[in-house]
TrEMBL record:
Annotated Gene Ontology cellular component terms: cytosol
GO MF annotation, one: phosphoglucosamine mutase activity
Cofactor(s) essential for the protein: Mg(2+)
Sequence similarity: Belongs to the phosphohexose mutase family.
Protein name: Phosphoglucosamine mutase
Enzyme Commission number(s): 5.4.2.10
Keyword Magnesium: yes
Secretion signal span: none
Entry keyword RNA-binding: no
Alpha-D-phosphohexomutase alpha/beta/alpha domain span: 2-127, 147-237, 244-343
Amino acid sequence: MQYFGTDGIREKEGIFTPDFLARIARATVGLKERPKVVIGRDPRVSGERIEGVLTGTLLRFGAEVLSAGMTPTPVLAFLTRHFNADFGIMISASHNPPEYNGIKFLKTDGRKIEESTEAALERLIDNPCPLEEREGVLTRIEGNRLYIDDLCRKLQPSVAGMRILMDTANGATAEIAPQLFRELGCDVTAIYTETDGVRINENCGATHIETLAEAMRKGSYDLGFSFDGDGDRLMAAVGGRILDGDHILYVVARVLQQQGTLKDNTVVGTVMTNLGTEKSAAKHGIRLIRTKVGDKYVSDEMERNGYAAGGETSGHLIFSAYHTTGDGILAALLLAVIERKYGVLNLDDLEEYPQSHQDILTDADGIAAFDRSEAIKSYLRKVEGEIDGRIVVRKSGTEPKIRIMAEGKTKAESEAIAREIRTFILEQIKQ
């Protein structure tokens, strides 16, 4: 059975029964005898329960478990690499609502495991192999301190005195992100910093950037940052303008190009990356390569070819000189360093094609109907051939949704296209 989506195993928390969790842990040991595993979680209410079952089962079969407690995904990825662990296990549903949770597997270098490894785990979850019970070892680690020290050593940031507003989404960055910037001498105002897990991502964080925009208008700040629940995404604000992942990737890529560290003058985006970003980058001699949606596909492309910068519109940003995975805290610090060194972040030359997004919430039958419909495929080809823009229609990898993105010369045009596509697909999957 397939359990993994585009970002690990993710569902409403009720699916994570003790039996299912024990099977996941046993499968981990089935892949690697006596593995070293770093485990962490975001603050969701179900996180401690899930961590407890996974840890207990891993220890029962001889694993060495390093527990990082509540920590962001990029910190967990750093720790997996730092301790040369066989696996990192992050318990999080990222940007999803509080009632969801998930399990992400990372490999030794901090990147997400390959699809072949996911398939091997799925086989072992469904068909557990015999395992010898033996005593494991549990160690609790202070990962945030290690991460902060490593990041400051690599970047050597000079940002003292900057006025920073940050929305930590009532999530895993609530402690570490303000701590980092305050230690660097910034004047930090942090909002949505509750870590009881009840309100993670609720009307706050990177998926509700309007919350940051409103708070920015009420104060005087140099930069605003908005993280998602597990800290692997970033949205930002400067001078009254909201910056999504495309904007941030463009800004950092231009600086890396000036420094001579943007390999092959190439950045990696996805099919969702705004066409305006691609055209604007091209004017400066920067090529954009597109992958499927999912930061793991961006990461894979970067790893294969040694590219320095990649990301998604949604705010997953990877800068390989500093980290191997999407890291909202790193991206925020890079923006602060650039703002301090070069002055106001200039996006005047960045073209944008207005995008409109529509979602269709459905079920397994609706997804199956969408997959097999030749009428939908034919219709989408026809629409794309008629418009001066782009469309992307895909299944969500983390929720039972069909996602629609339309890009046009005007907002009205893109909205009309997205609505028409949504209406047509709904008619087809309900037949």
